[in-house]
Design brief:
mainly alpha; single chain; globular
């Protein structure tokens, strides 16, 4: 990390990460397109959207393993401690996933808490059980990918994600050709096979990195104690948990607004496109964590972050505010005409989300550099509070379909989070003498 930091160097690290997230973002549109071409597409799109929302909540404690490994895998002892933590979380969450899917609690969450239409609950439960390996596999692959990022092997991340997408696509296409399983079940099975393939590839590719950089402990090397690990990671895990609570909150609004089944069917398609457009912004956080070192590097990274936000705004506007939106929703995802119109309107209201994602990643990276991870948790709590108020208030006060209200609420909540993160990062820089 002694090389002079330039825009080109940032780009070299960011591009493979962005490509990884871009490939990953193709997964949900691919699955939505397959479900749309199987029997009862509206029912199964709605069921899979609910399934994925709950699965994300279960997975949330390991979402930030990528950041954790990038920041703390500094020695052999630290890596071993991180792997112990990974084993505990991976198997614990897998057991919880199965317990939730097999118990009446799953039905209670969807029917009483979310208010989902009764006909989608059992298809959603089956898909959820098929996704049992999801959290554990993601824990391992994000830990190993974080090690690769720390030691500059980001090109491997693209490869592991390509393997994941190929495995997911192969299972989904086989399900489409066979036609024996409902669309939601095909998607649940496909995504499980994909994440297992991704984790296996990451486990193989990280081995030479570990041998080269983490095979021995030298005097003076960083020692990672359990108390420090938990203090560092707990706010990040809470951030993920709170952030992913957005999924059921949105589902709650979709279920209780006008046209609930149609809104639940449209939202996975809209959110899949939005994730595709914001993937480059998501990739920025680990770049900042890996490269931020001093005031000079801060200035260079800030310029890159702002340029990226502007570029993502332009791309999002091109895709959502032009006839390209029709091509995507009617041609690629094959939504019926009435659902495609709703999807276009919702996507247009999310045009600023990719840029807001880049700014969020930038400010989070700065706060992680200064170990101010609790500020990220507070920012996420603000995001969810605004989202909850906007969704619940909007579906009661506005006559629009729930998908439109959810898009407005999501944009407003991200704006509130960016505003808070910017203020906290500025205050932190001032305290550290970087202002």
């Amino acid at each position: 990390m002694t090389e002079l930091l330039t825009q080109r160097r940032i780009l070299r690290l960011w591009l493979p990460l962005a490509a990884m997230w871009l490939l990953m973002s193709l997964e949900q549109p691919t699955l939505s397109a397959v479900i749309a071409r199987l029997p009862e597409p509206t029912l199964n799109l709605a069921a899979y959207g609910l399934t994925f929302s709950i699965a994300l909540i279960v997975e949330s404690p390991v979402i930030m393993f990528l950041t954790l490994a990038t920041a703390l895998a500094r020695s052999q002892q630290a890596y071993r401690r991180l792997m112990q933590f990974t084993h505990l979380m991976a198997w614990g969450l897998t057991a919880f996933h199965l317990l939730l899917g097999l118990s009446p609690l799953y039905t209670w969450i969807l029917s009483d808490l979310v208010g989902a239409p009764p006909e989608v609950i059992e298809p959603s439960r089956i898909a959820f059980l098929l996704m049992a390996p999801w959290s554990g596999a993601i824990a391992y692959r994000r830990m190993w990918q974080g090690v690769m990022i720390r030691y500059g092997r980001t090109q491997f991340l693209f490869l592991t994600t390509a393997i994941r997408l190929a495995a997911t696509g192969a299972v989904a296409l086989a399900g489409l050709a066979n036609g024996a399983l409902p669309g939601a079940s095909v998607a649940g099975l496909a995504i499980s096979v994909g994440v297992i393939a991704d984790a296996a590839a990451a486990g193989v590719l990280v081995r030479p990195v570990v041998r080269q950089h983490l095979s021995s402990q030298q005097p003076g090397d960083f020692l990672l104690a359990w108390p420090y690990l938990l203090r560092f990671y707990t706010p990040l895990a809470m951030t993920s948990l709170i952030n992913l609570a957005a999924q059921p909150i949105v589902s709650l609004g979709l279920s209780r607004g006008p046209l609930p089944l149609e809104s639940l069917a449209v939202w996975p398609v809209v959110s899949g496109l939005t994730f595709l457009l914001r993937s480059g912004g998501v990739a920025l956080q680990e770049v900042v964590v890996a490269l931020l070192a001093d005031r000079e590097s801060y200035q260079v990274l800030r310029r890159f972050a702002h340029s990226l936000a502007l570029a993502l705004t332009g791309v999002a506007a091109l895709v959502t505010l032009t006839p390209l939106a029709n091509l995507w929703f009617t041609g690629v995802t094959d939504l019926p005409g009435d659902l495609a119109g709703m999807a276009r309107a919702a996507a247009a209201l999310l045009v600023l989300v990719p840029a807001l994602t880049a700014l969020t990643s930038w400010q989070r990276g700065v706060l992680i550099h200064f170990s101010r991870t609790s500020a990220i948790t507070v920012a996420t709590a603000i995001n969810i509070s605004v989202l909850l108020l906007a969704v619940l208030g909007g579906v009661r006060a506005l006559p629009w379909p729930g998908a439109i209200t959810a898009a407005l609420a999501l944009s407003a909540s991200l704006m509130a989070e960016v505003a808070y993160l910017t203020a906290r990062a500025r205050a932190t820089r001032r305290v550290e003498g970087w202002a």
